[in-house]
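lol forgot to send this yesterday, sorry. struct tokens for the thing we talked abt
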């Protein structure tokens, strides 16, 4: 037998003997202790009956990320967090709002258009004509219109109206009635 074949068989036999010794001595990866790359040894935990903790699983599922949402591949810094007012700032804002006068009421709007008037020659009493889509209303000076407004004064091209509930006044100018049809 050639000499190289004898050396190869001796080397193979030595490797097999070393593998058997390692397996029997418990130094392999299936042994009770595992060695890390730094030389530290970690003990393998053996759990006989691990129970699934559903409460912990639900808690983890309900977690929501509240940190900064940003693109991790972008070099620009994230925007600053939104300002949360302190109780002192909230109180100062409330005091500032309390000191401001209330806004003025909205202007009076009459849901009709003034389109003409007539004067009685004998008495001089004027009556104004108002149009609300298909309805026509006639109201003289001092009379009520639509149950909410009082006609104060009728002029040649306008009429002064007062809202009865608030006392606010508005002047309506004469408009041409829209043609029917």
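and heres what i got for the seq, position by position
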């Amino acid at each position: 037998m050639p000499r190289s074949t004898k050396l190869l068989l001796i080397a193979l036999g030595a490797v097999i003997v070393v593998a058997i010794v390692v397996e029997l001595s418990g130094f392999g990866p299936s042994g009770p202790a595992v060695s890390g790359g730094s030389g530290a040894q970690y003990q393998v935990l053996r759990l006989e009956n691990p129970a699934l903790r559903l409460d912990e699983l639900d808690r983890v599922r309900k977690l929501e990320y509240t940190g900064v949402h940003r693109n991790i591949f972008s070099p620009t810094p994230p925007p600053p967090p939104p300002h949360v007012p302190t109780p002192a700032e909230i109180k100062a804002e409330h005091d500032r709002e309390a000191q401001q006068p209330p806004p003025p009421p909205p202007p009076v709007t009459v849901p009709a258009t003034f389109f003409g008037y007539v004067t009685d020659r004998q008495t001089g009493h004027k009556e104004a004509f108002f149009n609300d889509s298909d309805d026509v209303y006639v109201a003289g000076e001092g009379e009520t219109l639509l149950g909410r407004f009082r006609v104060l004064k009728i002029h040649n091209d306008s009429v002064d109206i007062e809202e009865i509930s608030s006392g606010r006044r508005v002047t309506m100018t004469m408009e041409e009635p829209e043609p029917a049809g």
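Strands lie at 33-35, 41-43, 113-119, 126-132, 135-140, 144-145, 149-154, 158-163, 169-173. anyway ping me if u want another try
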